[in-house]
Design goal:
The protein is α/β, with parallel strands linked by helices. The protein is 38% helix and 28% strand.
């Protein structure tokens, strides 16, 4: 009996230390990402980028262990839909995607979608109707805003990722490409600075979110809410009221 009393008081004394030490076991969540610098990409086998940093910091605060999985965009959509990957980052919300994903209510990053051409190519594009007359490149599975409908997308030449897209533009294999501003800055930033590649038509402004698979059930909805609040708190602390890399 005396031993039990001693143990009880010893536990009370140690409890504050245990609580400050944090959880002994952390929930593990897999976050899928497409190779999309400067937001999310792989260097020497390790996930890097602005979004990856945000997820790491938010996970640390929430007591969650993040595991990062790099997959091509189309395959990643299938993975989160089937539940082999729990979450996906840097994703624009659409009604179709919301059928299998819980989206965080607040965005982490935003960027423009525009048509890019080589300035010396002689290609002139001032409106959507001009796109039909040229060989236009785009990334398979990407969403390019409400102006670019399925009929228009069917005329585009699809490639697997942004790296291939901008390489083919520079090589003259595309007359123009529909691209995202952050990726354009990363892959052809020097050419843009020299005026060799120019944006000729802005199509949309997109807000990117982290989203969780419906296969997680109510836990997925709860995680989306938690990460929305934590990421927003981090951005506020950094002074990034209008999130941008």
């Amino acid at each position: 009996m005396q031993m039990r009393v001693v143990s009880f008081w010893l536990l009370l004394l140690l409890l504050p230390l245990i609580l400050r030490a944090g959880p002994v076991w952390a929930e593990t969540i897999s976050f899928g990402y497409d190779e999309y610098p400067p937001l999310s990409y792989t260097v020497d086998g390790e996930a890097r980028g602005r979004t990856i940093s945000l997820i790491r910091e938010a996970s640390k605060r929430l007591g969650i262990e993040p595991v990062f999985v790099s997959q091509p965009f189309i395959r990643l959509l299938v993975s989160v839909k089937e539940g082999s990957v729990d979450s996906m980052v840097d994703l624009y919300e659409t009604p179709e995607r919301s059928k299998f994903l819980f989206f965080a209510a607040r965005s982490a990053t935003s960027e423009d979608v525009s048509v890019y051409v080589r300035s010396r190519s002689g290609v002139r594009i001032s409106g959507l109707e001009d796109l039909a007359r040229h060989k236009i490149g785009a990334v398979r599975g990407y969403y390019y805003g409400k102006l670019v409908d399925r009929k228009m997308m069917s005329r585009f030449r699809m490639v697997k990722d942004c790296k291939v897209l901008y390489s083919m533009l520079l090589e003259g294999r595309f007359d123009a490409v529909v691209g995202n501003s952050l990726a354009a800055e990363h892959y052809v930033g020097d050419e843009i600075a020299r005026g060799e590649v120019v944006s000729v038509l802005k199509l949309a402004r997109l807000e990117y979110h982290v989203a969780f698979s419906h296969t997680l059930g109510s836990r997925g909805r709860r995680l989306a809410d938690l990460y929305a609040e934590e990421i927003w708190r981090i951005l506020m602390e950094r002074g990034e009221l209008n999130p941008a890399p």
